[in-house]
Amino acid sequence: MMKKTFFVTTPIYYTNGIPHIWHSYSSLIADILFKYKKISGFDVKFCTWVDENSQKAVQKAEEENMPVWEYLDMMAEKHKKVWDWLGISYTDFIRTTEPRHHELVRKVLQKSFDNWDIYEWVYEWLYCVWCEAFKKDEDLIEKDWKKVCPDHLKEPDKIKEKNYFFKLSKYQDKILEFYEKNPDFVTPKERFNEVIAFVKRWLEDFSISRETNKFWIKLPFDESQVTYVWYDALFNYVTVCQNWDERFWPADLHVVWKDIIRFHAIYWPAMLMSVGYELPKQILTTGFFTIDWQKISKSLGNVIDPVEFCEKYSKDLLVLYLLSNFNIWQDWDFDQANAVLTYNAKLANNLWNLLNRATVLTMKLELQNGFENEKMDENILKNFEEYDKNFKIFFEKYELKAVLDSTFKFLDDLNLFVTETEPWKLMKQEENLEKAKNILYTICESLRQVWLNLYPFFPEKMSKLFETLWLQNYSLYLENGKLAELKAKKENFIIKEKPEILFEKFEI
Ligand code: ME8
């Protein structure tokens, strides 16, 4: 039988700087969803990329006094290193300067052109290189008697040139029809409603080429012009689905922040329709994030490096904070103290204490073959089944905060169960020994289930935790898509030694 496929993508990152903490947020979300589908047995693909055909990168190379190619090679390598270091398990890493991508872009440009969707036009406009976006007069603010971009405090360039335009206006009805048939196309709903309202109002054709820049992909129908932003960035998503990987298109999920939602939810579908490709299934939008309530930008220089942050604390702390403290689509301000508090409470206390208690007490029982013929405590089992059902539903809806909340709530219940039943007292009374055994088995089995659920978030730590309960080869089975089999397995838990501390507490 053919396996079900799942293809998830990160945004296409510019390379005028190395990824900061909020870039890593988008990549972590994609990674966790990918891992979940992978252990659940899907045929999976996960792509991340760098957007190199950008004026920002060319400028940055000039600033650094480096040849553009050297600069791009260096930055692509740096991006890859950050993702590798963070354990982001992408299956494809693509640069927009790669020949395989250029070929595809020229092919689709020609297709759109032949389909009368691209036309020539001369126009004049204001353009902020730092945003890589056109500005209208009303977008600008006054500073020192000049009209500047509010984000970069620099004057936009005045541009007048011949360009090619994409006929977005032609697709208004078709896009609305597509939205109607795909009510979950954009998550969350509010973002989707904004998009729909925008499309209903009016769609403006947009420019897809430049005549001044020589660096990018030449238009196949006019080699004096090069592509600009849209075709060369977005079609990346398709480039990686050629040659043997066609089954992965259309993508199941694009993860992007809300700033580029219009491009992904409006431009992108129209461009795909123009060339006759299927449309992606869903777009997940993250919020707009700040650090100390300031917009973060590589050009403003107020950046937190995710690798440095994880070296100071731990990767688990970063993942837990980013995914459990706020919903994916909320706007948020990064707060280190809060990150530490969350980690100490949930991983170092809640999860770790329970394991510690369970192992120390179980070892005292000196069971030769572990727990034989034990069943879980009925109340806890009921509790668990409810939690496990919701867990799946939340994951399928990409609600990762709810996934973690429900997990830590279940762990809280377990902690309470131990505190109330006091197995350490029961163990000392011959007539209650069986009861104590049952409680400890319940805890071990619950922990095993929780760790399986948490694997996509903390794979290294969960693998180590499996070993503490003598659960052999679990990571191997998971990496081969055997989550369901493992969940259904009956284990006896032969515990031979006290585990080393895996979640150290941090000082604020
Ligand atoms: O936009 N808050 O690249 P990029 C939340 N190449 N997310 C943030 C963030 C913040 N303050 N800053 C960055 C580009 N991100 C273009 C896209 S589309 C045709 C081309 C995350 O490097 C967010 O997920 O500026 C965003 O989508 C991504 O970084 C891209 O950032």
How would you portray this structure in words?
This protein is α/β, with parallel strands linked by helices. Helices cover 48% and strands 17% of the residues. It is built from 19 helices and 18 strands. It has helices at 21-39, 55-63, 68-85, 99-114, 172-181, 189-201, 230-234, 236-239, 261-275, 306-312, 315-324, 336-365, 378-396, 400-421, 423-426, 433-454, 459-468, 474-479, 483-488; strands at residues 5-14, 43-51, 92-95, 118-128, 133-135, 141-143, 146-148, 157-166, 186-187, 206-207, 209-210, 218-219, 222-227, 253-257, 283-286, 289-291, 294-295, 332-334. A six-stranded parallel beta sheet has the order 3-2-1-14-15-9, with helices on both faces. A four-stranded antiparallel beta sheet has the order 5-4-8-10, with helices on one face. The chain starts with a strand and ends in a 20-residue tail after the last helix.
Give the helix level as a range of percent. Answer: 40-55%
Query: Tally the helices: what do you get?
Result: 19
Distance between the termini: 52 Å
**What can be said about the biggest beta sheet?**
6 strands, parallel
Which ranges are low-confidence, i.e. pLDDT below 50, for 5 or more consecutive residues? none
Taking all residues together, what is the mean pLDDT?
Answer: 93
The spatial strand order of the largest sheet comes to 3-2-1-14-15-9
Rg over CA atoms:
26 Å
The ligands bound in this entry are: ligand ME8
**Extended strand count:** 18
What portion of the residues fall into strands of 2 or more residues? Answer: 15-25%
Output the structural class.
Answer: alpha/beta
How would you describe the shape?
elongated
